[in-house]
Design goal:
- By secondary structure, the protein is mainly alpha-helical.
- It folds into 2 domains: 47 residues, no CATH class; 115 residues, no CATH class.
- The strands form 3 sheets. It has a two-stranded antiparallel ribbon. A two-stranded antiparallel sheet has the order 3-4. A two-stranded antiparallel sheet has the order 5-6.
- The longest helix has 27 residues.
Length: 180
Protein backbone atom coordinates (compact mmCIF):
# COMPACT_ATOMS: atom_id res chain seq x y z
CA UNK A 1 0.00 0.00 0.00
CA UNK A 2 2.83 2.39 0.73
CA UNK A 3 4.35 1.70 -2.74
CA UNK A 4 1.35 3.18 -4.53
CA UNK A 5 1.61 6.47 -2.65
CA UNK A 6 3.80 9.02 -4.44
CA UNK A 7 4.95 12.44 -3.46
CA UNK A 8 2.99 15.11 -5.31
CA UNK A 9 4.75 16.56 -8.36
CA UNK A 10 4.71 20.26 -9.14
CA UNK A 11 5.10 21.90 -12.51
CA UNK A 12 8.68 23.03 -13.14
CA UNK A 13 7.38 26.31 -14.56
CA UNK A 14 4.54 26.87 -12.05
CA UNK A 15 5.82 25.57 -8.69
CA UNK A 16 2.42 25.90 -6.96
CA UNK A 17 0.52 23.73 -9.47
CA UNK A 18 0.28 20.06 -8.68
CA UNK A 19 0.41 17.77 -11.72
CA UNK A 20 0.55 14.18 -12.85
CA UNK A 21 2.00 14.90 -16.30
CA UNK A 22 5.62 14.63 -17.35
CA UNK A 23 7.32 15.74 -20.55
CA UNK A 24 7.92 12.58 -22.57
CA UNK A 25 11.34 13.82 -23.66
CA UNK A 26 12.99 15.49 -20.66
CA UNK A 27 10.79 13.89 -17.95
CA UNK A 28 10.15 17.19 -16.15
CA UNK A 29 6.74 17.52 -14.47
CA UNK A 30 4.45 19.88 -16.44
CA UNK A 31 0.99 21.27 -15.80
CA UNK A 32 -1.73 21.33 -18.43
CA UNK A 33 -0.99 24.92 -19.44
CA UNK A 34 2.69 24.11 -20.05
CA UNK A 35 2.01 20.83 -21.84
CA UNK A 36 1.96 20.77 -25.63
CA UNK A 37 0.32 17.81 -27.28
CA UNK A 38 2.41 16.08 -29.94
CA UNK A 39 1.74 12.89 -31.88
CA UNK A 40 3.98 11.02 -29.43
CA UNK A 41 2.56 12.48 -26.21
CA UNK A 42 2.86 15.64 -24.14
CA UNK A 43 6.02 17.72 -24.16
CA UNK A 44 7.13 20.91 -22.47
CA UNK A 45 7.39 24.06 -24.55
CA UNK A 46 11.20 24.09 -24.43
CA UNK A 47 11.46 20.58 -25.89
CA UNK A 48 8.98 21.45 -28.65
CA UNK A 49 10.90 24.64 -29.46
CA UNK A 50 14.15 22.68 -29.61
CA UNK A 51 12.59 20.16 -31.96
CA UNK A 52 11.22 22.87 -34.27
CA UNK A 53 14.70 24.41 -34.65
CA UNK A 54 15.79 21.22 -36.39
CA UNK A 55 13.34 21.93 -39.20
CA UNK A 56 14.48 25.52 -39.78
CA UNK A 57 17.24 24.86 -42.29
CA UNK A 58 17.28 28.13 -44.27
CA UNK A 59 20.55 30.04 -44.58
CA UNK A 60 20.76 33.82 -44.40
CA UNK A 61 21.20 34.17 -48.17
CA UNK A 62 17.98 32.24 -48.85
CA UNK A 63 15.89 35.24 -47.80
CA UNK A 64 17.26 37.75 -50.35
CA UNK A 65 17.30 35.06 -53.05
CA UNK A 66 13.68 34.14 -52.35
CA UNK A 67 12.60 37.79 -52.20
CA UNK A 68 14.36 38.68 -55.44
CA UNK A 69 12.98 35.64 -57.25
CA UNK A 70 9.45 36.25 -56.00
CA UNK A 71 9.51 39.95 -56.86
CA UNK A 72 10.98 39.56 -60.34
CA UNK A 73 8.70 36.71 -61.40
CA UNK A 74 5.62 38.43 -59.99
CA UNK A 75 6.57 41.66 -61.80
CA UNK A 76 6.77 39.90 -65.15
CA UNK A 77 3.51 38.10 -64.41
CA UNK A 78 1.78 41.37 -63.60
CA UNK A 79 2.79 42.75 -66.98
CA UNK A 80 0.53 40.15 -68.57
CA UNK A 81 -2.52 41.26 -66.60
CA UNK A 82 -3.01 44.29 -68.85
CA UNK A 83 -3.56 41.97 -71.78
CA UNK A 84 -5.63 39.18 -70.26
CA UNK A 85 -7.98 41.13 -67.94
CA UNK A 86 -10.56 38.81 -66.36
CA UNK A 87 -8.48 35.70 -67.06
CA UNK A 88 -6.06 36.99 -64.43
CA UNK A 89 -8.25 35.15 -61.94
CA UNK A 90 -7.25 31.88 -63.60
CA UNK A 91 -3.62 32.74 -64.33
CA UNK A 92 -2.67 34.11 -60.89
CA UNK A 93 -2.87 30.83 -58.90
CA UNK A 94 -0.73 29.07 -61.49
CA UNK A 95 1.76 31.93 -61.48
CA UNK A 96 1.88 31.72 -57.68
CA UNK A 97 2.58 27.99 -57.84
CA UNK A 98 5.34 28.55 -60.39
CA UNK A 99 6.93 31.26 -58.24
CA UNK A 100 6.76 29.06 -55.13
CA UNK A 101 8.36 26.14 -56.95
CA UNK A 102 11.06 28.39 -58.42
CA UNK A 103 11.87 29.71 -54.94
CA UNK A 104 11.87 26.20 -53.52
CA UNK A 105 14.42 25.12 -56.14
CA UNK A 106 16.61 28.19 -55.69
CA UNK A 107 16.84 27.74 -51.92
CA UNK A 108 17.38 23.99 -52.36
CA UNK A 109 14.19 23.14 -50.43
CA UNK A 110 15.48 24.67 -47.21
CA UNK A 111 12.74 25.83 -44.87
CA UNK A 112 12.02 28.35 -42.18
CA UNK A 113 9.00 30.00 -40.64
CA UNK A 114 9.75 33.39 -42.17
CA UNK A 115 10.65 32.30 -45.70
CA UNK A 116 7.02 32.00 -46.96
CA UNK A 117 6.18 35.41 -45.51
CA UNK A 118 9.25 37.09 -47.04
CA UNK A 119 8.60 35.53 -50.43
CA UNK A 120 4.89 36.37 -50.43
CA UNK A 121 5.61 39.97 -49.46
CA UNK A 122 8.20 40.27 -52.20
CA UNK A 123 5.79 38.75 -54.74
CA UNK A 124 3.11 41.26 -53.75
CA UNK A 125 5.62 44.09 -54.03
CA UNK A 126 6.85 42.83 -57.41
CA UNK A 127 3.32 42.51 -58.75
CA UNK A 128 2.34 46.00 -57.60
CA UNK A 129 5.51 47.96 -58.42
CA UNK A 130 4.55 48.51 -62.07
CA UNK A 131 0.98 49.63 -61.35
CA UNK A 132 2.12 51.88 -58.50
CA UNK A 133 4.67 53.54 -60.76
CA UNK A 134 1.97 54.09 -63.41
CA UNK A 135 -0.38 55.45 -60.74
CA UNK A 136 2.18 58.00 -59.57
CA UNK A 137 2.81 59.12 -63.15
CA UNK A 138 -0.91 59.32 -63.82
CA UNK A 139 -1.54 61.44 -60.72
CA UNK A 140 1.33 63.76 -61.58
CA UNK A 141 0.34 64.35 -65.20
CA UNK A 142 -3.46 64.04 -65.22
CA UNK A 143 -4.38 67.61 -64.38
CA UNK A 144 -6.54 68.10 -67.50
CA UNK A 145 -8.34 64.72 -67.39
CA UNK A 146 -10.59 65.54 -64.47
CA UNK A 147 -12.22 63.22 -61.99
CA UNK A 148 -14.05 61.07 -64.57
CA UNK A 149 -10.88 60.40 -66.56
CA UNK A 150 -8.97 59.64 -63.38
CA UNK A 151 -11.64 57.20 -62.22
CA UNK A 152 -11.71 55.35 -65.55
CA UNK A 153 -7.91 55.14 -65.50
CA UNK A 154 -7.97 53.69 -61.97
CA UNK A 155 -10.15 50.83 -63.19
CA UNK A 156 -7.15 49.59 -65.16
CA UNK A 157 -5.36 48.93 -61.86
CA UNK A 158 -7.93 46.35 -60.78
CA UNK A 159 -6.37 43.31 -62.45
CA UNK A 160 -2.77 43.93 -61.39
CA UNK A 161 -3.95 44.32 -57.79
CA UNK A 162 -6.03 41.13 -58.00
CA UNK A 163 -3.04 39.35 -59.54
CA UNK A 164 -0.73 40.56 -56.75
CA UNK A 165 -3.05 39.49 -53.93
CA UNK A 166 -3.79 36.06 -55.41
CA UNK A 167 -0.14 35.39 -56.29
CA UNK A 168 1.09 36.45 -52.85
CA UNK A 169 -1.44 34.27 -51.04
CA UNK A 170 -0.71 31.29 -53.29
CA UNK A 171 3.04 31.67 -52.81
CA UNK A 172 2.62 31.92 -49.05
CA UNK A 173 0.46 28.82 -48.73
CA UNK A 174 2.52 26.74 -51.15
CA UNK A 175 5.75 27.51 -49.30
CA UNK A 176 4.09 27.07 -45.94
CA UNK A 177 3.30 23.49 -46.92
CA UNK A 178 -0.46 23.76 -47.20
CA UNK A 179 -1.67 22.20 -50.44
CA UNK A 180 -5.07 23.35 -51.70
Amino acid sequence: MSDSFQQPMYCYNHPKRETLLRCNQCERPICTSCAMRTPTGYRCKECVRGQQKIFDTAQWWDYPLAALTGAVLAYFGSLLTNYIGFFTLFLAPFAGMLIAEAVRRIVHKRRSKKLPLVTAGAALFGALIGPLFRLVLMLLFSGQAGVAGLFSSLFGFLWPVVFGVVVASTVYYRLKGIRV
